[in-house]
Every structure is written in structure tokens, then in C-alpha cells.
Amino acid sequence: MVQFIFDTLFRAADLALIAVALSAVYSLIRFPNVALVQYAVVGAFVGMALQQQGVPIVPAVLLASLLVGGIAQVFNAVIFQRLLRLDPAIALIGSLALSMVLSAGFLLGFGPAAQRFSVQVAPATRVFGVRVTEMQVLTGGLTVAILIAFALLLFRTPLGREMRAVSTNPVLAAATGVNTARVTGLVVFLSGVIAALGGAMLALRGSVSIDMGTNMLLPVFAAAILGGLGNAFGAVFGAIVIAAAETLITNLNFGPIVGQDHVFLPASYAPAASFALLVAVLLFRPRGIFVSEVTRV
Amino acid sequence: MTTELLAVRGLAKAFGLSNVLEDVSFSVMPGEIVGLLGPNGSGKSTALNVISGFLPRSAGTITFAGRDISDAPVHAITDLGLVRTFQLPSMPHRMTVREVLKAGKRDDGGRFAPVAYGPEIDVLLQEFRLAHVAGHAASALSGGQKKLLSVATALRANPKLLCLDEPTAGVHVSLRSDLVGVLRNYVAQGGACLVVEHDMLFIRDLCTRCIVLDRGNIIADCLPGELENNPRVVEAYLGKAIEKGGMAQ
Amino acid sequence: MKKMIRVLAATSVLATALPAQADVVIGAVLPLSGVNANGGEDQRRGIELAVAQINEAGGVLGEPLKVIYEDSGNVPQRAIDAARKLVSVDGVALVIGEYSSGITIPLGQYLVAEGVPHLNPASTSGLVRGIGATSFSMVGLDNVSTEFAAKDVLDRGWKRVAVLAMNNAFGQGVANEFGAHFAQLGGEVTTTIMYTSGQTTYRRELQQAESTEPDAYVFTAYGADGGLMMQEAYELGLQEDPWYSILITMHNADTPAEFKTGLIGMDVDYTADDTSYKAAYEEAYGQSFQSAWSGYAHDTTLFAAETIERAGSTDRPAVLSAIAELGAEGFTGVTGEIKLDADGQRMWQPYQKLKVEGDALVSHE
Amino acid sequence: MSDFLIHVISVSCIYGILALSLNLQAGFTGLMNFGLIAMFGCGVYGAGLVHRFGLPVALGPALALILAVLMGLFLARLGRRLSTDYWGIATLSIAEIARIFATNLEPLTGGAQGISGLPLLFSGLRPWDGAARLALFAVILGVAWLICERLVRSNFGLGMKLIREEPQLARALGYDIDRIRSTVMVIASVIAAVAGVLYAHYLSFVGPELLLAPETFLIWAMVIIGGIANNRGVIAGAFAMQFMMAYVPFVKDYFALPSDFVAAARLMLSGGVILGFLLLRPQGIFPERVGGRHDH
């Protein structure tokens, strides 16, 4: 049981930062930006490249995140703002296409193999009968800290108030003197930074390959949608639910049912669990979680 | 009772805690043109949305042409002959005016048969003065032209009851009398109308009866000429006007 | 639209006219990208060394031998597309390929259908045997290797083992055959976990295996997968128990030294008695063998060149009968003697027990 | 040489059929399906399963048809109350679930190793089998084109276009949106599945890699480059993309580029074409012709 909780929490930590970034940016720019999961990969790869150039790991990760924030703003201005003028669905296709182009870039720039930061790795120690590694604790803690910092920014600062105002009613916010373009730009920047940090955390716990973005795409979306796209901290909740579903499906021993000692579902069903959960939610409770466009009059 | 085309009984609609319609009952007979009036926020558009099936009701019943349509889906209601238009009709930009008009009547000559434009389309285009823009993208029309197109398209569906949501707002004055003529003609041929409208001149010209809503309740059901002398109607409009800072209607 | 097709057709004629046709050309479909990229690169090195050796000695049929490499990207469809290009555009005499059985089988079937000779330089799944008439294996299949591994594991006193293998033709073959041999010899497989190759983490699979409390973990993994799996096993503390790798050289080069201390395993023997190849490899690439597969790819190329020489032309039927003839006679390469059975499969090959020492593999008898 | 050209044109025909299917959904009805490959997969695995269990080859199309109808209905049902972008993500998920099950349900689907050795069409006609297959594919592409053209030029097609842009107006005029969408999805799904069956018997191999998400985006690229909502345009787009994809390896040979280049260039081509066209020419090379013959 303790193992289950730990596994769930660490998997949730994998998903949470990127899902929060996705949700936050959706609240202002109304289309699901698929390329965000690739920003996470960019963050991890750039961080590793900087470290290889001799930059110590902490500034390397921070620099990489800021850089990705900037890249996110550039893509937003050059690509997404233009596509959004056509249609949100077009912007979604554009972000899928951008993801493919970025994948191609990773393949050429970093090769197909998985890569890792060069950090000291120690074997797991046992806590409450559960194996935990130093890096898991460290990155898990950092993830929580980043989430808290973002929450404080959102709920305790004038900037956060402006962000929430723009997301609820951009026209009204603009009328009351909020510079919506500046606020939107800032949120795009922050989403890039948070996603990149999420990618770096993942890379610190394990390794990052060019496929990571693609593999993370649907679990991250499932988490963000479950929590209600546009509701940044709903995404954390969504991440925990998705992580629990995935962990449950792979940790259950089906052996007794089929008359053997140990039979597990292949772990590759784990993503299927999160997608199935997503589809079920969309199928049966679409309105509980978001406002359906089709039924609007 | 059997002659009623539309009968609304005790209709209520709430959004969360706010009751937009409290207890609305009225009916429309064949051949009538009923105006649905009221200050902004009185629930006119909501009533139209609930009757046409676009919003689910909270309570009450709606019968149309002898059938209970309280919970029927929009297409079933339309199939029975109740067709509506929108206050701000938005038109596709990758279809021409002619195509939209053609699409007004579904299954024209079979679902999968090729589109053919019969003479009746040209007649309608003429009647609504849209012939010169027939080949234009429908979204390129002016606001007033879009309204006319939406009325014309709705008429193509051969409705027994046509529900119009502010058909004259944005329509050029010279076209209003044409619109009155077209609608009168349609009613004379056996149709009926329910019109949500602000323009009192248009109402007086067109309507045979008026229903006035205020805060979700009917406060008057009378002839157009009697409106000005109805104290509750005057109070409702004036009260609103004072609340709004003296801007009279 | 018609105009567009005409333009496309014209440009395609131009594009396909580019490769030179003077040399004796053979094709190689290898995983040069994807999880097996390192293995594929090692195969390519083996082929290059063979080509250099052959051309130094005067080439084939008096012409220099040329190999056109195509990337399978570890995707069957792309492998078949690549083979189609080799066969119909480049007009190769035969095709060497691929690395993993899941791709070698459809690739081979395509070549068999086209009547093109196919030489399998690496795939060891038992299913390879059924590819068809014009397909030949230059490597022994799994029934032999898994029996060797099962005996080796049991000899070390590990009675209960968890098996991890990739979910493809090769992995399924290894898992099934190892399980059967191991049970027959008196051992018990606590659980068999088939994992999908190319994941970013194998924690879930490792934890599943751990929960069955085995004496040892027996696994087989391709390059990048194996490196990651060993790292995560180390981090999870699972390397307190022994790990045994079937075909250890597939992932050894991709696994950092700190995560494979004490790892043992088995593989096909590629050093045999001939050390000149090892020396040539180290001289050319400045490092020791990255896997067992360069030697096999090397021998496959030598075998191919020899058959074309015997056939006297690059005519496919002639090459086919030359392959059968040479296979029956036997041909000695750096991996030992290549002799084919009636199905065109290599009958025998040496295996070796290996252990990790630092970053390198050493014999462990 | 000409064999390779025949191959590229044959595959272009199959992708042309897929592009028509996507165009019917996304181009004319506004259904942004990112899981098209699952519909294709119904055809591929329909043919594959029949072969795997030793049933008569003719049952392949029948099984494919059943699977495709179910898939179309399910996706349509899912789309009933979802906005476009959510539905897009949902379809992407369905396709991924389908791929994961195809990879892991080893007893049924053959797992990751797939199903190989499917009978090749017209293999008895050697050496003219390639040309015969091409002829068959071209005819089927033509039939699919006729069906799509007829559909979008019909009264039903007017409904599709109205739903695409103004679903509220369509509802008010009595169009049963759910039914029209379901009908379109089923027709498109069956068309995609036909392409799948043909492809399975062309490649003679069926495996989960055929269902990877980038394949869907390749078809999207074809539709966008050719001209969304223009049936001839998307076929031209399919040919253009397929030819570019097929000739990437030659570019690699010619410039002696590293082998990663091929994989990267293919991704870059699909993604780059989509992005470039969306930004610079969203209507594609052959834009939709608005209005019927009457208006021009």
C-alpha cells in the first residue's frame, strides 16, 4: 500500500508540472498546445547540453528553463497567434505539427539514444519499507516547491490577479486597464519555464529520449483535462488520479485469478489506463469538467 | 384547445440560482403574429430558446401542433414545423448565400441527390433583395442582410410557426416594410409567427397580439395598441429605464 | 493535377538515375536509427571492414564491391520500403538485414516474395526459420542459445528467476524457450515480463519483477533499453540480487559502467580463434567491439561476396544456388564455420559466458 | 526503376484514399479527427486477423467493414457533446489505445511482431503484378473520389458544410447533427478501412507500427498541402507528400547524409509542410471551390 502511494505520487510528479503549464496557458489562449510537452524535452536537452559545456547543474537547468520560456513566447507570437485568428482547431493542428518538427530537431541534434544529466547516482534506500532514491526525493520536493511558488504567484500577487482577470473575461480586464497582451505573454513565458523545469526533473530522475514528449503527451493531457483545462491546480489533482490509475493497473497481481503465482498486465497498458480514463470522462461527464461548445446557444 | 398551435404552460427556467423564467403560460393560434416583448433581461430570448429546444426547461410543458415537445430534441421540434432564427445570425464563409438558402429545406429531393437550384430559390432571393449577392460568401453579408437571409432560410423550411429573434435589428429601414410584407404573406398562407422584438413600429405594423415579459413573468397579453395604456408595461419599461440611468427606450 | 503528376514522374526519374551502377552492389537494411542504432552501427562497421578486405583483395568478379545501407528505423514498414528501393531501383544482387527478428521476418518475407536472396546477419528468433526459400541465416537460432543460458543460470545455483524480455518476435522467442528449458532442467520462472521496447522508464516492469522475490533476474534487452533498465535496477536497489543477460553485447555498450557492476551473461562467440578481425576493428574504430553483431555482419558480407564470385554474376538465381552450395560445403569466417541446414539456417555456432569488468566484457568460464 | 515508381504511385493511391476519408471528416464536416489511423487500422487488422486465423481472405474486407463501422460510430458518439479540440485529443487517445492493444494482445494480434505473410494481391501475375495492383488501387481511388464528390455535392453535403461552420444554424433548420456526423464518420471510416485492407495485402505485413500517430499527421499534411475541402486537391497532396517521402533516401544517398537524416527529414517534412501551409497558405494549393456550378 505504501509502495502504491509512493509510486503514484512520483508518477504524479512526472506529470504535474507539464500539466499545470498546459492548463495555465489554456486559460488565456484557448487551444490545447500540444507542443508544450516538447518544450519539456527541449528544457531537459538544453540543460544537459549546457552541463556538458561545463555549466554547473543548477544554473544549467535554470538557464535552460528561461531559454525555453523565451522560445515559447517566440512560437506563440510567430505561429500560434496567427493560427488562432483562423480557428482554435487550426492552432491545435499547428501545435501538433510543431511537435513533429521539434522531434526531428531532437533526432538530428541529440540522436535517438536516451540521455541523462551527469549526476551522482546512488542505489535506493528503504523508507517505510519502500525503496526511494535521493534524486526522487530531491526532484519530488522541487516539484512541490515549484507548484507552491506558482500558486503564490497566481493567488497572492497583483500579477496573479491580472492573470485570473484576463482568463475570466479578457474584454472586461482590458477595459479596467489590464495590459492583456503583456499578461498573456508572461503566462506563455511561465508555461515554457514550468514545462522545461518539469522536463529537467524527469531527466534528473531517469533519462530523457527524443520520444519522451510523445510518450508524455496523452497522460499529461488526460491529467489537465480531468482537472479541467484552464484550471491550473485542477491539473495537479488530475495528475494524481491518472498516476493512481496507471499504478493500479500495473501493480495488481492477476496471478491468483488465473491460477499462477505472479501474473501482471504488461506495463505498457499503463498509458492505456490513463487514455481510457480520459475517454470515459469525456464520454460520460463532458459538462462536469468543462463547458461544451456545442450546447452553447 | 385543439386549435392552439403552440401552448406553453407554467414554463420555468433557472440558471443556477437565478430564475430567468418563473411561470410563463401563453399560446399561439394559427394565423397569429404574436409579439414577445419586454425590457432587456426579462427572459424573452430565454423563452424562445427553451421553446425551440435549444435549452432544457426547468419546469412546465410545451405542446406544439398537438404534440408534447417539452423534452424533444431541436431537430424533432423543427420537423414538426417550429423553426427559429437567431438574434445575431452568424453565417458560414465557405458557403454562398444561395447554398445557405438551399440548405434551409432539408432533404430537398432526397438526401444524397445532387444539389439542384429550383426557381423557388430565385423567387426568395428576389423577395429578400439578395439576388445580387447570391454567389457571395454568406459570411460577407452585412448584419441586416444576414438577418434577412436567416428569415428567408427559415421560411424555406416551410414552418407552421416561425419564431423570430429580433428580426429587424440592424436591418435597413427600407427593408423593414418588405419584411412585414413577406411575413404577412406567409401568415396569410397558413403560417404563424412568434416575434421577439424591440421596434414598436414594426410590432404595431405586424403583430396581431403582444405578450410582455418582465423578470420571468407575463405582465400583459393584449393588442399592440393597448400597450401604451397598460400601467404595468409602462412601469416595467420605465423602471428599467430609470435603473439604467434615465435612458428611455 | 495531371501536370503535377507528370512533373513528379519526371523528377523521380531524375532522382533514381543518380546512383552509379558500375560496381557489384549489395544492399543492407540496418537499424541505423531508433533503439537499436548502436547495434546497427556496429553491424555497419563489420560490413565496412569486410568490404575493405574484399576490395583490397581485388573485389568481386573483378569489380569493387559496394554496399548500399538503408535505415529501417526499427520499423518493419520502413524496412520493407527500403528493401523495395534496394531491389527495384538499385538492383542489388542480394540484401543483408536486419537486426531484430520482428523486422527481419517481414523484410525476409518481402524479399522471398520478390525472389531476392536474403541473408540474416543477426536475428535469432525461431520464427526466422519459416521465412521462406530464398532466406538464409548466418547466425544460430534461439533454441540453441536459450538452452545454453538456462543451463548456465542453473549451474550458478539460481533456482527461481524472473524473466524480462522485449515484446517482439525475438523477446517472445527467448522468453518462451528459456522458460521451457529452465523448467525442464528443474528451475522455476517466477514471472515473465514482456516489456515494450523504447520506453523512457522501466520502473514499473522492474517493480513487477521484484515483487515475485526471485533469486536472480534473467533479461534480454536492446541497446538503449538495456542501459536504462540497468540504471533503474541499480537505483531501485534490485542489483543486490544477481542479473543475468541473454545476448549481453546487445546492450553492454549502452550501459554505463557504474550500473552494471557484477553483471554476467552469455552471447554468441565472436572472437573464435581468429584475432585478426578484432585487431582490425580496434584499429579502425579505436574501441573494442560494441556488440557481437559486427562479426556476424562481417562474415555475412564475406559469405555474400564469395557466393557472387562463385555464381559468376549478380544474376539472382545463380547467386541463390551458389549460396546453397556454399552453405552445404561450409565457409569459415571470424565467427567460426558457417554451415547451413536444409532450411538455410546456420547449424552451429559457438557461445560464450561473459562478465562485466569495468566497462568491458571478459570471458567468464 | 519503373518498379519503384509503380510502388510509389501505388502507395500514393492508398494514401489518396486516406486523404479523401480525412477530407470528408475534417474538410467538409469540420470533424478534426486525429485518430484517423485507427480507422485505417480497422482495415489493416481486419485483413491481418483473418489471415492469422486461417480464414478465407475474402472475409478480411468483411471483418474490416464491421470494425470500421463500429469505430466510426464510437468516435461519433464520443464527439456528441465535445468541442472540436477536446474531440481531437479524444480521437488521438483512441488511436493510441488501439495501438497499445494491438501491441500487447499477443494471442489475438500477434503482438509487436505483428502478422506477416499475408497473401500479396495478384502475385500470380508476375511480372505484371505490380502494375495490376496499381491499376486496382487507382480504380478504387477513383471510386472513392466519385463517392466523396457525389456526397459533398448532394443535399446531404450542404448539411455537412452547414454543420462544419454554423452548427447552431444547422440545428435551427432541423438538421440532426449527431446523425449527420455519425453518417459521415461511418462512411469515412469504411473508406479508410478499405485503404487499410489494400495496404495490408500490399505490404503483406501487419503490425502495430502501422498505427503510430505520426502516420495520421502525414495524412493531415496531405490534406492541408492539397487544399482542405477540395477532393482533387487532397489526392494531389497525397501524391506530393508520398513522392517527397519516397525520395528522401535518395537525397540522403546523394549528399551522403547521416542515416538519422531520413527519419528526421520525414518528420520534418510532415510537420514543416503543415506549419508552412497553415501560416502562409491555409487554403492549400487547390482551395475549396465555394458554391456550386450555379454561382460561377
What are the defining features of this structure?
heterotetramer; A: 297 residues; mainly alpha; 2 strands; 74% helix; globular; C: 365 residues; alpha/beta; Rossmann fold; 2 domains; 7-stranded mixed β-sheet; 5-stranded parallel β-sheet; 12 helices; 44% helix; 19% strand
Polypeptide structure, described:
The complex is a heterotetramer of chains A (297), B (249), C (365) and D (296). By secondary structure, chain A is mainly alpha-helical. Chain A has one domain. Chain A is 74% helix and 2% strand. Chain A has helices at residues 2-28, 35-52, 57-86, 88-110, 134-156, 158-168, 170-175, 180-205, 212-226, 234-251, 255-258, 269-284, 286-289, and strands at residues 125-127, 130-132. In chain A, helix 2 crosses helix 9 (212-226) and helix 3 crosses helix 8 (180-205). Chain C has 365 residues and is an alpha/beta fold. In chain C, the strands form 3 sheets. In chain C, strands 7-6-8-9-10-13-14 form a 7-stranded mixed sheet, with helices on both faces. In chain C, strands 2-1-3-4-5 form a 5-stranded parallel sheet, with helices on both faces. In chain C, strands 11-12 form a two-stranded antiparallel ribbon. The N and C termini of chain C lie far apart (69 Å). Chain D has a two-stranded antiparallel ribbon with strand order 1-2. Helix content of chain D is 74%, strand content 1%. Chain B: Keywords: ATP-binding, Nucleotide-binding, Transport. Chain B: This is ATP-binding cassette domain-containing protein. Chain B: Residues 6-240 form the ABC transporter domain. Chain B: Pfam families: ABC_tran.
Task: Summarize the helices and strands and which ones pair or pack.
The complex is a heterotetramer of chains A (297), B (249), C (365) and D (296).
Chain B lengths: L5 E10 L2 E11 L4 E5 L6 H8 L7 E6 L2 E2 L5 H7 L1 E3 L12 H7 L15 H9 L15 H14 L4 E5 L7 H16 L3 E5 L3 H7 L2 E6 L2 E6 L8 H13 L6
Chain C lengths: L1 H15 L7 E7 L6 H20 L8 E7 L4 H13 L6 E3 L3 H14 L3 E3 L14 E3 L4 H14 L4 E7 L2 H16 L3 E8 L7 H8 L5 E4 L3 H13 L7 E4 L2 H4 L11 E5 L7 H10 L7 H19 L4 H14 L1 E3 L2 E3 L12 E7 L2 E4 L2
Parallel strand pairs in C: 1-2, 1-3, 3-4, 4-5, 6-7, 6-8, 8-9, 9-10
Antiparallel strand pairs in C: 10-13, 11-12, 13-14
Chain D lengths: L1 H28 L6 H17 L6 H20 L5 H21 L1 H4 L5 E2 L12 H24 L2 H11 L1 H6 L4 H27 L1 E2 L6 H14 L4 H25 L4 H21 L16
Helix pairs in contact in D: 1-6, 1-7, 1-9, 1-10, 1-11, 2-3, 2-4, 2-9, 3-9, 7-9, 10-11, 10-12, 11-12
